[in-house]
């Protein structure tokens, strides 16, 4: 089965399973990128080394979270193809998920904190108000 036909069947299954349209749009983008890289080759011609090489190549221009998303799509797609019997071996089974990147914490400005405190105060939740005050002090 060719990569594009595999994607169509995978999409049909995920629609039946009730995946959200946002997830399926994201998967469609990942599928198009995969087909663009490999061409419309037979699924059985893609092995672990090919997938690792692809991920290494794209990792140079992606943030860790984006690379992780691409990795999860590939694993899901090839696991499905293997379970459905379209391929005899899952080439993505030995690929490890990349480490998540370190994020720089975002701090609230005094103005935004004041807005949150006023909102919580008007909601009447003393517990949340105390939490806001403790966060402001720290």
Mean pLDDT: 85
Query: Architecture of the largest domain, CATH level 2?
Result: Orthogonal Bundle
CATH class of the largest domain: Mainly Alpha
The 3D shape can be described as elongated
Classify the beta-strand content into a percent band. Answer: under 5%
CATH topology descriptor of the largest domain: DNA polymerase, domain 1
| Number of helical segments with 4 or more residues | 6
Low confidence ranges: none
Taking the sheet with the most strands, its summary is:
none
Subunit arrangement of the protein: single chain
Task: State Rg.
Answer: 22 Å
How many strands?
Answer: 0
Please give the domain count. 2
Percentage of helical residues?
A: 55-70%
Distance between the termini: 58 Å
Q: Which H/E pattern describes the elements?
A: HHHHHH
The secondary structure category is: mainly alpha
What key phrases describe this protein's structure?
138 residues, 2 domains, 6 helices, mainly alpha, elongated
If you had to describe this structure to a student in words, what would you say it looks like?
The protein is mainly α. The protein has two domains: 3-83, DNA polymerase, domain 1, CATH 1.10.150; 104-138, no CATH class. 66% of the residues lie in helices and 0% in strands. It has six helices and no strands. Helix 1 runs antiparallel to helix 2, helix 3 (48-59) packs antiparallel against helix 4 (64-83) and helix 5 (110-123) packs antiparallel against helix 6 (126-137). The radius of gyration is 22 Å and the shape is elongated. The mean pLDDT is 85.
């Amino acid at each position: 089965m060719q990569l594009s036909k595999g994607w169509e069947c995978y999409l049909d299954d995920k629609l039946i399973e009730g995946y959200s349209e946002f997830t399926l749009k994201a998967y469609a983008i990942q599928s198009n990128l995969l087909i663009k890289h490999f061409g419309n080759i037979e699924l059985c011609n893609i092995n672990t080394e090919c997938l690792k090489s692809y991920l290494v190549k794209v990792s140079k221009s992606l943030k860790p979270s984006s690379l992780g998303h691409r990795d999860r799509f590939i694993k899901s797609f090839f696991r499905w193809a293997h379970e459905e019997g379209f391929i005899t071996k899952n080439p993505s089974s030995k690929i490890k998920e990349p480490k998540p990147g370190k994020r720089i914490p975002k701090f609230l400005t005094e103005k935004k904190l004041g807005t949150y405190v006023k909102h919580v105060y008007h909601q009447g939740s003393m517990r949340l108000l105390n939490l806001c005050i403790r966060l402001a002090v720290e």
